[in-house]
Amino acid sequence: MSNAPAHPPASLQARRFAHARECQARALLEDYVEMISDLISVSGEARVADIAERMGVAQPTATKAIGRLKREGLATSRPYRGIFLTDAGAELAERVRARHRTVVALLVAVGVPAEIAEIDGEGLEHHVSARTLAAFEKFLAAQNRPK
Question: Is there a contact between 65 and 29 (Cβ–Cβ < 8 Å)?
Answer without folding.
Answer: yes
